[in-house]
Amino acid sequence: MMGSILGAIKVSYNSSKEFSLNWWFWLVFTGTMLACCFSVKFVGLFVVLLVGLITISDLWAILGDMKRPVMDTLKHLVSRALCLIVLPLCLYLGFFYIHLTVLNRSGNGDGFYSSAFQSQLIGNSLYNASMPYQVAYGAVVTLKNHKTGGGYLHSHFHLYPEGVGARQQQITTYTHKDDNNKWVIKKYNTNENSKTEIVKSGDLVRLEHMATKRNLHSHKEQAPITKKHYQVTGYGENGTGDANDVWRVFIKGAKDGTELTAVSSKLQFVHYLQSCILTTSGKQLPKWAYEQQEVSCNPNIRDPNGVWNVEENIFENLPNVNFEVYAPSFFERFLESHAVMIQGNAGLKPKEGEITSRPWQWPINYRGQFFSGSQYRIYLLGNPIIWWCNLIVIALFLVIFLINLIRRERGYIESFSDPHRQKLIACCWLFVGWLLHYIPFWGMGRVLYFHHYFPALIFSSMLTGIFIDYLLENIPKMFDESYSKTLYHLMVGIILSTLVYSFYLFSPLAYGMSGPSANESNSSMRNLKWMDTWEF
Prior knowledge:
Helix content: 25-40%
Strand order of the largest sheet: 10-9-6-5-2-13
Mean pLDDT: 87
CATH topology of the largest domain: Trefoil (Acidic Fibroblast Growth Factor, subunit A)
Distance between the termini: 31 Å
Strand content: 15-25%
């Protein structure tokens, strides 16, 4: 992140050596650092935005210089587009190609990815697998929801609790592979499968849960969470139920009579009596359903989440085909992995007992976070001297910058071009960087932690350093030259000593505390608990 900012500044302030070898080096360096930054974490995109704003500012200044030919502006535009857009994207694709090549083995999170993606993971049940291409009546299948990160249609012996629709067997989606994900697809009016018959689009079917022998069922009871949907349950005994177990299967984009195939066919199950579509809201059910995801029947049959595909297809009377025919391309895997990451990141929920925080708490150092609760306790907390000093400096900077803007508008200051006032411009960019890395978290619905403020903290700390230097440079203007230099060094010494001493005071929080907590009167840390919300 800091490399990206350094490179952007070097390019901006090397304007006298445009298109020199040194200038090109820093431009390529900036693009490379940007690629590395957002390859590590998505918040790196905020750095990309900041560098983009700096670049636009530079190009605007070049365009406004009437002494320059238009071709010069065009050369700057093309060079920056190549080095700051094309190069980072190419590097990012290259990094991800290596990532997908190296991380090619199965893991606990396989179920978040599509069946085709899973077929490329060594150790996954779909890797080098062979199964029938067509789906026949009597086949044992698993049904995977087609939305990004969608789970498998799942059931177990547990019932919905009292007060949650009918007290029948729970139906959920589950993102991990499990024997309770297996279903037998049957004709709606018979259990007999004397001859091999392929399931076709438009057929009426029953889905019998293999482990519990209960049918997939829906009725006009409210779904557990999405109250406008109908409840979906497991009903019946040994495959025998009632008319509410019947579903019409449609292959999306295909005509009636089209044969159903594993993996590639996009299926929709529409309830025969209720005219609703089998879907998943993606909402997490309470602990009585083991926090799996809700399955319901939506009267709006255009629900985009009501699309499924057959993943596993077990049937002895049809020939098997190799799963490699479904292998996705690199770009398909690239796009899918990003969609899963974005969805997973947005849907993160705190673990039980875990301390989370909100953005308003971060700049004021309201609460820290335990990293270890063993004999030596480690507590993540900002150095309060730095944190609170940063806040004061930001407020002071805004006041002084505004005063200087007003003075310039009234003609007291010609421009900010002198080296002293250039520090204010540097502070302005750092303030923008702080805002870009802090404000977006206010709009995020996902779980947030104290450490999410750290990128913004870097910008506010740099702003503090440069602004203090700006203030200290005013000492010679305010005092006699004979002792202004001494006063300058004295102030620098006091500031550095304060920082070093504050580090010494609070270092046990990082290196490990032992003994009583700060709440107890005999604790050595008691005097350091400056806020009641600090829990060390």
